[in-house]
Amino acid sequence: MRKFIRLILSTILLTFLAFYMQIFSFLDESNFWVSTNIIALRYILILACSSWILIEIVGILKNRILKKFDITSEDNLKSRKLHTQINLLEKVIVFVIILITIGLMLISIDSIREIGIGIFASAGIVGIILGLSAQKIVGAVLAGIQIAIAQPFRIDDAVLVENEWGWIEEINLTYVVVRIWDKRRLVLPTSYFLEKPFQNWTRTTADILGTVFIYTDYTISVETLRGELSRLLKDCELWDKKVNVIQVTDSKENYMEIRILVSAKNSPTAWDLRVYIREKMIEFIQKNYPESLPKTRINIENK
């Protein structure tokens, strides 16, 4: 609604400016210099207002389309994909509108007309962008466009980047904002995700495996632990009822390593499930098999 109101106000402003500048130019027809500059100024103002209107129209269309796709729903893979593409497409269109507007404005001023003509000369706008692609800012813009097309990640994807775990909160042409689990924000250039490896935990689906490691003495029964794990998962709403595995994955001189694998519908739920299982399994061992906690054995020989 706010964008629609801004669109109406900008249209009224454009009409008023055109009418006012036309009257003002008639009053100063006797002065050629004033008349010429008034015409150029009127042209610049009309261009500025027109580009503003176009940008507002793009924003309104984007909002109308995105309203049909809710990213807060449980199965939101398609919605997140469209939100990512449309948001980046809007930024590309706005960038092109502003670039064209600046070029047309420069053409309207005699003293710097050659600069404006140069923007549209030879290969055109695309050639200018590609010619400047070595520059960091334009390279970042091109990286943003590439991300929109290839989509290595989407809005609200769970990622592990720079040893920080969080969700993709914003995707802009030049930078990406990652909302870390403790509510900090990690801001990275778009080119980072094309040049360095990162983990995307929700690339094709949100469900994920959670791992819990328990270290115990050799005297404990693995089958007993397996039965307790099944009992805990049976009454746990965090578990998606798919994966329930407990295995001995390593053995050392003083302890054996037991790995528990459980599954959940998404990464935040998997984290809570891992914490719950770890706490309950340790509590179970403490109460029922305290002698099976890791210990160091020493043999003392009497001489």
Structure in words:
This protein has 303 residues and is of the alpha+beta class. Among the domains are: 2-122; 208-292, Alpha-Beta Plaits, CATH 3.30.70.100. The protein is built from 9 helices and 8 strands. The protein has helices at residues 2-27, 32-66, 77-107, 113-120, 124-131, 136-150, 192-195, 222-234, 267-288, and strands at residues 158-161, 164-171, 175-180, 185-189, 199-200, 208-216, 244-251, 256-264. It has a 5-stranded antiparallel beta sheet. The protein has a 3-stranded antiparallel beta sheet with strand order 6-8-7, covered by helices on one side. A hairpin with a 3-residue loop joins strand 2 (164-171) and strand 3 (175-180). Helix 3 runs antiparallel to helix 6 (136-150). The longest helix has 35 residues, at 32-66.
Q: Keywords for this structure?
A:
Alpha-Beta Plaits; 53% helix; 8 strands; alpha+beta; single chain; three-stranded antiparallel sheet; 9 helices; 303 residues; five-stranded antiparallel sheet
Helix and strand composition category: alpha+beta
Give the strand line-up of the largest sheet. 4-3-2-1-5
Please give the share of residues in helix: 40-55%
Kindly state the mean pLDDT as a whole number? 76
Q: Based on CA inertia axes, which overall geometry fits?
A: elongated
Main beta sheet strand tally, sense and closure? 5 strands, antiparallel
Radius of gyration: 31 Å
The amount of beta strand, in percent, is 15-25%
Output the number of helix runs: 9
State the separation between the terminal residues, measured CA to CA. Answer: 92 Å
H/E element order:
HHHHHHEEEEHEEHEEH
Low-confidence stretches: 27-34
Q: Count of DSSP E strands?
A: 8
